Amino acid sequence: MEKPTAWEKVLEHLKPRIDERDFETWFLGTKQRHETPEVLSVQVNSPLYASWISENFATQISEAAQLAGLGGREIRFGADGDPSSTIAAIKGPVVVKKRTGTLNTAYTFENFVTGNSNRLAHAAALRVAEKGTRQYNPLFICGGAGLGKTHLMQAIGHRRLSRQPGDKVIYVTSETFVNEVVLGVRFNKMESVRTRFRAADILLLDDVQFVIGKEVSENELFNTFNALYDDGHQIVFSSDVLPREIPGLNERLKSRFEGGLIVDVQPPELETRVAILRQKAEARQVTLEDDVAFFLALKIKTNVRQLAGYFERVAIFSEMRGEAISLDLAKEALKDVLRDAEQTTSPAEILRAVAAHWGLKPSELRAKTKKEQIVFPRQVAMYVLKESTSLSLPEIARLFADKHHTTVLHSIRKIAARREEDAEFNRLVAGFISQYR
Questions:
Q1: Comparing C-alpha atoms, which of 42, 112, 117 is closest to residue 73?
Q2: Which residues sit opposite 261 in a β-bridge?
Q3: Long-range residue pairs from 166-170, CB within 8 A, at least 24 positions apart, any chain
Q4: How do residues 157-211 score in pLDDT, each as one tens digit?
Q5: Sequential DSSP letters for 73-86
Q6: What pTM value is reported for the model?
């Protein structure tokens, strides 16, 4: 088996840190050119890619490089035909001008677009940021990827600092929390780790579900929660599902997660998506006509981050062309990603293929039954649909007698784990995916 390159190791750690569509758009075609003890040179598709990657993903790349054991290495991005071969470079640890501490200055309440899908979550976050209340402690924000959970959490941090500049606000992802605990244990520094987190006036822990299953980190989280709560300090969590639906969550943490206020963020309705696009256009000081706004809003229905990424792609294309944003220009800028979406196999074809392999009918996969001979092929079908189509978890769930999206999430995780354990089963599933992707 060929040894992975240094850049491939970085990509392994980078992929889970950014949106899937962003990874496919900006990083899928990249490859390592050459490597020295000081510099890692990476080839990208064009000079535009080099500058965009370095400006928008510097922090994530720096963190991924450190996890891959390349923390002191400068990473240079260049395209074929570029005489300097160095359009942009990143050297960790990165300090990004757009950030204040660990808070992104773009993530404020002023920049958050509200609608029916997120109004309650926005109101609760604002209340916590400005006043703090035992009734909302902890505040637990749940919702799918790219819907604004991180935006709301960091907005809480910004607003609290603007109201009470002396407060210690800590925003941290669950991955960073776990890494700090691991390093604390390894280097006998746990006391300083505990002191840092328990000194917070407000602790914002993003994607808390990823802490679950890591025993030492779980225990530290439990004790940190108790210390902060007993001192009357605010805690805010986010997760992709409700506390009771987090796999493996123990009762003592579950009771604490559910002890305050739980709010959810749903996929934005059309009007909210259009409003988000108009806000992005205003921030960029470009004109966005209604036909373009609705074209983009209708293409991306479930992910705000992806919607913003499509708009940025169109805006950059407009700048490169020196042309105003029009419907034709937007279609040309997105022709590759839209072509992929249009060529996606229909869900019905996938259901037929999976059902046929197990000697079943598609209707049997969709039936409400817990028979093992049905449940397992159904889980495979859900997994293949997620890997081969652009359907969201709720949309996949609706194909199977309106099962909740967390059932789909559980199925995906179970099949992914089985693929790692069973080589023959992995080949079978990979065959389904390659046939329909």
A1: 42
A2: 139
A3: 167/201, 167/202, 168/199, 168/200, 168/201, 168/202, 169/101, 169/103, 169/200, 169/201, 169/202, 169/204, 170/102, 170/196, 170/197, 170/200, 170/202, 170/203, 170/204
A4: 999 988 888 889 999 989 889 988 988 888 888 888 898 899 999 999 999 999 9
A5: -EEEEEETT-TTS-
A6: 0.58
